Each structure stands twice: as structure tokens, then as C-alpha cells.
């Protein structure tokens, strides 16, 4: 149970430890509550006290919104984990990586004053829907949402409108929702969203080293509520334009949050490769969940899940199976054209990939919520598979 928390629909009682029978399993969101036990174990070590007089100022140092100490620790973390080359990059903080999506689109768009050819923002389906929805919200002279890469790749030479236009391609690796490792498809500029490129979710074959990379505290340590993300940017001018965007829209990111993230990263670093390694804890949990989930699905002919090949992981120093944050479920029967709907009828709420231009045959099931929620999910899924056997 979780004292002091509001219970969700599947639990009740003073500490939310009592199960509500036959409730609907909510596996929609990517809220990484599975990390909570780790941070409970490290409660004192990770705690931050902020007195009333503390951090009143807009600024961390003269005219600077970003804590240099936090930047240093982010670089140390990437170096120690080996998932990204950060030492030769500029760092831009954002209110979650969500805020940096548009900051980076702006920063990579043409800056020629007249803007005769706007940046063409694209992604490969199935993609993380906010790339489209956010870009379309701000669509203007500078850049436009131009759909999926498939359409452009198919007739690259004939339909490319002019040589001076630039694609701004979101490349999410591992991808949300299907968790495959991805590479750019078109030849333009790239925003590599590496929110999930950490050893608990994927083998790390080598450090990522794209010109523009995006990371998120929500996926690193589970601290989604702190709203903190960062971009690693090679080119100084691009980094400055992204920082200008942050300055215009929020005068820098919360300094309370920066302080908290510093303390969280210090705990992660202090325990790296030890018996309380956060990545080892999280990997173990995700690995168990992925195995349990697959065991249930293997009894079904109605649904299947994505296959991801094992790869060598430089962090764990061995070849390992994937441990994705999401199951990308496919409905195999002709009559189950809407997979989201098929699961909903079995009392499982998933996230339909249709928003990310995926086929309705697929739906995303989150594996990262609290253990209790995952247990409820497996019960509903087991019922679903057993019902299928009764019918056949
Ligand atoms: N990118 C990807 C691929 C995501 O899955 C998410 C969150 N689900 C985000 C960015 C945004 O994360 P946040 O704003 O919490 O950093």
C-alpha cells in the first residue's frame, strides 16, 4: 500500500491496499511508478529541504538560469552510463522534455529573416503523438508539420519541394510505442529523442552521439512530477536559439526542480554498479514484468506482442534481452480491427496508437506503473486469454 496517496479504481482502504474485485486495469499512461520502491529505500539520501529564503532569484549565477553544477552532473551521468556523448555538447534544460520539443523545432528551423522555406517537421509512424500535436499548435512561418517520413521517402526526389527546405525529423530511439531502436529515414536535421535510452529499458550498444538529443527525468528516474528534461546540442547557435525559446516562454526552468534533480542524480551516481544500482533495480523489475507479460500472451492466438532482438549492452557488459516500457500489442483476428477496443471490452485500458498514425490493429500497453497495477493488468490479460480458449 501507499500511505497518503489517493487510491485508483482498483484499490481502496486507508492505505489503498485493498483490491476492488473485477476492476478495470488502467495501462494507458507511461507514468513510471514502478520506480517508487527504489526511492522509498533511498528516502533520506535523496531528500531535499528548501528553506523559504532559498533560491528566491530567477538566476542560478549571473544572468544564467541553469545550474552549472547540475549540468556537470548530467555530463558525469552520461559518461558513467555510456548512453550518450555529452562532453562536447551544450545542455538546454526544459520543463520536462515536452517543453523542449517545440524549443528544438524552433531552434532547427531556418533563421533567415524572410523564412522563404519553413522547416518541415516529420516523424516515422508509429510515433509519439505530441510531435505532431505540438508542432501543429505552433505551426507558423517558421515550420510546419509535414506528416510521416514514409510519404517523403517513397518519392524523395520528385516531391521534395525545394533544395533549401529542411526536414526536421523526430527519431525516437527506443521508439514510443513499439520500443524498436531507430535511425533517421530522411536526410535532414534530426531531433533524437532518447527518453528511453537507459539500461533499464534497452541494451546500450554504444553512446548516442547525434547533433541534437533529448532526455527526460521522467524516464531516467521516474520523477515525472518534477517536470525536468534536457537536450544535448552540438552546435552553439542551435543551443542558444533553444535557450532563447525557454527564456521567452518561462524565464528558465524551476530552480527547485533543478536542486531536486541534482540530488537525485547524485544518488544514482553514488550507487552505480553497486548493490543498490538504480539501473539494476529497474532492469530487474522490467525484466520480470516483460517475462510474465509474454508468458500470458504466448497462450493467445488472438493477440501478439513485438519481438525485439537481444543485443550487447555496454552497461551490463553482456548480451541481453530487451525490457521495454510498453507492450505493443497486435490483434491478430480479422474481427478485432480495433485492438484498443478489444482490450477495453476485456477491462484493460491501453493507448491506441492511432494518434501516432499507427494501424488500429495495434495498441500500447504500459508496463511501468506500480506493481499492484501491473498485477491487475496481468489478471485481466489472463482472463482475456482464458476466455479465448473457452470460445475455441
Ligand atoms: N518523449 C517521449 C518519447 C516520451 O515518451 C515522453 C513521455 N511519455 C516525453 C518525451 C515527455 O516526457 P517529459 O515531458 O515527462 O520529460
Automatic annotation (TrEMBL):
Species: Digitaria exilis
GO molecular function list: carbon-sulfur lyase activity; transaminase activity
Alliinase C-terminal domain mapped to chain residues: 25-384
Top-level taxon of origin: Eukaryota
Matching Pfam families: Alliinase_C (PF04864), EGF_alliinase (PF04863)
Classification via InterPro entries: Alliinase_C, Alliinase_N_sf, EGF_alliinase, Ethylene_sulfur-biosynth, PyrdxlP-dep_Trfase, PyrdxlP-dep_Trfase_major, PyrdxlP-dep_Trfase_small
GO biological process: amino acid metabolic process
Species classification: Eukaryota, Viridiplantae, Streptophyta, Embryophyta, Tracheophyta
Keywords, alphabetical: Pyridoxal phosphate
Cofactor (UniProt): pyridoxal 5'-phosphate
Matching Gene3D superfamilies: Aspartate Aminotransferase, domain 1, EGF-like, alliinase, Type I PLP-dependent aspartate aminotransferase-like (Major domain)
UniProt protein name: Uncharacterized protein
Amino acid at each position: 500500500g501507499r500511505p497518503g496517496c489517493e487510491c485508483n479504481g482498483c484499490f481502496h482502504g486507508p492505505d489503498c491496499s485493498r483490491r476492488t474485485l473485477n476492476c478495470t486495469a488502467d495501462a494507458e499512461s507511461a507514468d513510471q511508478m514502478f520506480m517508487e520502491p527504489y526511492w522509498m529505500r533511498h528516502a533520506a539520501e535523496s531528500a531535499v529541504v528548501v528553506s523559504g529564503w532559498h533560491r528566491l532569484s530567477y538566476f542560478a549565477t549571473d544572468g544564467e538560469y541553469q545550474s552549472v553544477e547540475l549540468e556537470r552532473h548530467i555530463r558525469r551521468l552520461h559518461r558513467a552510463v555510456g548512453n550518450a556523448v555529452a562532453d562536447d555538447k551544450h545542455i538546454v534544460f526544459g520543463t520536462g522534455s515536452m517543453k523542449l520539443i517545440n524549443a528544438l523545432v524552433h531552434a532547427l528551423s531556418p533563421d533567415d529573416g524572410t523564412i522563404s522555406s519553413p522547416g518541415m517537421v516529420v516523424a516515422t509512424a508509429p510515433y509519439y503523438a505530441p510531435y505532431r500535436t505540438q508542432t501543429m499548435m505552433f505551426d507558423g512561418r517558421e515550420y510546419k508539420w509535414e506528416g510521416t517520413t514514409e510519404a517523403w521517402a517513397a518519392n524523395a526526389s520528385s516531391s521534395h519541394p525545394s533544395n533549401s527546405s529542411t526536414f526536421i525529423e523526430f527519431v525516437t530511439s527506443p521508439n514510443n510505442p513499439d520500443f524498436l531502436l531507430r535511425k533517421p529515414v530522411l536526410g535532414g536535421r534530426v531531433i533524437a529523442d532518447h527518453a528511453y535510452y537507459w539500461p533499464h529499458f534497452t541494451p546500450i550498444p554504444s553512446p548516442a552521439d547525434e547533433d541534437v538529443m533529448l532526455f527526460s527525468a521522467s524516464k531516467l528516474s521516474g520523477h515525472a512530477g518534477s517536470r525536468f528534461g534536457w537536450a544535448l546540442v552540438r552546435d552553439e547557435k542551435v543551443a542558444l536559439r533553444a535557450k532563447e525559446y525557454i527564456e521567452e516562454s518561462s524565464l528558465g526552468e524551476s530552480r527547485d526542480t533543478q536542486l531536486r534533480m541534482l540530488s537525485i542524480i547524485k544518488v544514482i551516481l553514488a550507487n552505480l554498479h553497486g548493490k543498490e544500482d538504480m539501473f539494476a533495480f529497474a532492469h530487474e523489475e522490467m525484466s520480470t514484468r516483460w517475462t510474465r507479460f509474454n508468458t500470458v500472451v504466448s497462450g493467445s492466438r488472438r493477440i501478439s506482442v513485438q519481438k525485439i532482438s537481444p543485443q550487447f549492452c555496454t552497461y551490463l557488459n553482456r548480451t541481453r534481452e530487451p525490457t521495454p516500457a510498453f507492450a505493443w500489442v497486435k490483434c491478430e483476428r480479422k474481427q478485432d480491427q480495433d485492438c484498443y477496443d478489444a482490450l477495453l471490452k476485456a477491462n484493460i485500458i491501453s493507448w491506441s496508437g492511432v494518434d501516432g498514425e499507427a494501424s488500429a490493429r495495434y495498441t500500447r500497453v504500459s508496463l511501468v506503473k506500480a506493481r499492484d497495477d501491473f498485477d491487475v493488468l496481468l489478471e485481466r490479460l489472463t482472463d482475456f486469454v482464458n476466455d479465448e480458449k473457452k470460445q475455441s
